Amino acid sequence: MDLMDEQELRKRINITTNQEIEEIQPLIQDEDDKLLKEKKDLAAKAKKEKQIQIIIVLALTALSLFSRYYKIAKANVVVWDEAHFGSFGSEYIKRTFYFDVHPPLGKMLIGLSGWLCGYDGQFDWDSSKVFPENLNFVFMRVFCATFGALMTPLAYLTAKELHFSQLTCIMVGLMVICENAFLTISKFVLLDPILLFFTALTFYFLTRFRNAREKPFSLNWWLTLAATGASLGMVSSVKWVGLFSVALVGLYTIWELWDYLGKPGVSFKAYILHWIARILLLIVLPVSIYMFNFYLHFTILNKSGSGDSNMSSLFQAGLEGIDFTQNPVDVAYNSKITLKNTSYGGGLLHSHIQRYPVGSEQQQITLYHYKDANNEWIIKKPWTEPQVPEDKIVYVKDGDIIRLVHAETKRNLHTHNVKAPVSKKLYEVSGYGNSTIGDANDLWKVEIVKDHYDPKSHSVHALLTNFRLRHVQTGCLLQSSGASYPEWGFKQSEVVCDVHGNNHAAKNIWNVESHWNDLLPAAPLKTFRSSFLSNFIDINVGMWTSNNSLVPDEDQEPDHLTSEAWQWPLALVGIRICSWGDDDVKYYLMGNPLTWWSAFACILFICLLSGIYILLRKGHVLHWKKEEWNNYCYSALITVGGWALHYFPSYLMGRVLYLHHYFPAIYFGIFVVAFTLEHLTSYFKSVKIVGKAIITLYLVANIWFFFYFIDMSYGFTGPSSNMKSKQWLKTWSMADEDGL
To answer: Transmembrane stretches, by residue range (predicted)?
Structure first.
C-alpha cells in the first residue's frame, strides 16, 4: 500500500470513530444521568428515612415522658423505698457520710435533683410521711422518671441496630412504654429507673458496636466502643446488678476476639490492637468511671454521719466533726480507749450491764456500730504487777500483758473455757469482776501486726497500729465471729475467743480508735490520714459483706414484700408498695402479664428452636448462608443471653430478693419477644401482610393488658376490694376480701 492509500484509510477510520463516538455519547450521558438520579434518589430516600426515624423517636419519647409524668404527684407521701433513697440524697446535700450496699452514682443523681430544686436536706423521709411544702418532691420524681422514660427511645434504637423491621422496632418501644412495672417504678425517687436507663444504654451501644465491626478502627468504631465502656462504668456505679451487663459485654467480646483469631484479612498487628482497644475501653475506662464515682462520693460526704463506723478508723479521722484529731498518738497505761475490729463493717468493742442468759451468765461483750460511752475501756497492768500511777506515763508496747477494764461498769474483759452463746465451737467472752476482783483469765497479750505510723516501732499508736489480743491462759484470739446475738443481746455482733484463730484474719485484728489521756499531747496535724485506694477497697468490701448479710430473718414472720426468683418469669407475684387503707393512694407493683408470660414462652421456644436448627445444620438439612446463621446466633444469644445473665444469678444469691430485681431481665425479655416474632414472620416473606398482622395483633393485646392494669401504676383510691376482678391469680394481692 502506497502512502496515499494509507492516509485515505486513516482518514476514513477517524471519520467512522468520530461518528460512533457521537452516537455513543448520548447513551453514555443518559447512563450517567440515570446513575446520578439513582444516587440522588437514594440520598433523598435515606434522608426521608432518617427524618421518619427522628419523628418516630420523638413521638415515642414524648409518649413515654407523658406516661411517666402523668399523675406523678398523686401521692404526696413518701412511697416505698423513697424512704431510703430520698434520705441518701439528703446526705449529699448535707454532706454527711452514710453507708449503703449500693454504689453511689444513682444516689448522687438523686441528691443532685434535690439540690436543683432547692431542697435543704432536712426532711427525714419516713415511710408514708407527707412531704413538706418546702420540698419539691414532684421535681425529684420527675428527675428520676425522665431516666425511666428515656428507656423507650433507647429500646427502639436498639431494635433498629438488631435489624428488626420498622413495625417490630415500634412494637419494642411501645412494649417498654406499656410495661406496667417500668411505669410504676419510674414514678418515684428510686434507683431503679436510673439503673434501667443505663442498662438500656449499655445494650444499645453494644449492638451498635457490633454493627461497627465492618469498619474496625474507624472513628465510629472507636467512639462506639468508648461509649460501651462508659455505659458499663455508669451502670455498675448505680447498682452491682450492672455487673451482669458487664458479663454480657464481656462474653460478646470474647466471642468476637475468638472470631478474629486467624480470620483472613486480620493481621497479627491488627489482632493485638483489637485486644488493646478492648482492654483500655472495656476494662480500664469502666473501672476508672466506677472509681471516680467513689472519689466524688468521698469528696462530697466530708462530714461525720451515720455511716462512720462502717469505715476504718483512719478514714473517720478525716471527716469533719470527728474528734480523732485530738487523739494522742502513743497509747499508754491508764489511757481510755475504744477498740475497733478491723474486719469489714467491724464495730467497736462494747459492754453493758445486761448478762448472758446462758453459759457463764456474766456481763455481755459485743461489737457495737455506733458511738457510745459503753464502748470505752481503760488499759491496766496485770493483777500481779504494780499499777502505773495516774500521773506517770508508761507506753503500751508489743508483747505487753494488759487488762482491759470497762470504763462504765468496771468489769474486766475476760474469757474462759465456756461455749460462746451463738458460735458454740468458740469461747465466750464476758465482763467479769471489778477494779479489785479478777483472775488470770482477764489477761491479754498485745501482738502488733502492722504499724502505719512507724513500721520499726514497738509502741502501740492510736488508729495507726493493728494488733491482736491473745488470751494469756488459753492462747485464743479475741475475735468478731461475724454472728449476731438474739434479741437478748440487742442484735449486736458477737465477740468470741478462738483457740485456732488465724493470725492474719481481719476479724482477729484490732486498732485503737478513740484515745484519751490528759498527760499526752494531741497528734500533729495530718497524722491520721487514709489513702483513697484503701478507702475505696474498704467501702467496696464492706458493701459486699453487707449485701451478703441481707438474708431472711428467721426470728421474724415472712415479709410480704419479698419473693422467690422462680416466681418472676410467670408474673406470680406483685408488691403493695404503700399503705393500703381505703383513703390511701395505692400502688401495686406488677409487670404487664402478657409481656412477662410471652417473654418466658419465647425464651423456651428460642432455646428449643435453636437446638433443632443446630441438629438440622449438623445433618446438612438447613441450608442457611453463613451470614444468615451468624446473624441468627448473634440475635438469639444477645437477647436470651442478656435475660439469662440478669436472671439466673438470683438463684446464687443468699440475700433476700424482691420483684424489682427481675426488671433488668424483663427488659431483655422484651427483645426476646421481638426477635421471636421477627423470626417467625420471616417465614411469611412472600405474604408480608401475615407477618405484620401477627405483630400488630400481639401489640394490640399488649396495650390492652397495659390499660387493664393501669390503675395499679397510676394509683387508685377507695376499698382495694374494688380491684378483685383484676386479681387473676391467687398469688396476687392487690385486693382484700373485706376492702381493708
So the answer is: 52-70, 138-157, 164-182, 188-207, 219-235, 270-296, 594-616, 632-652, 658-677, 689-710
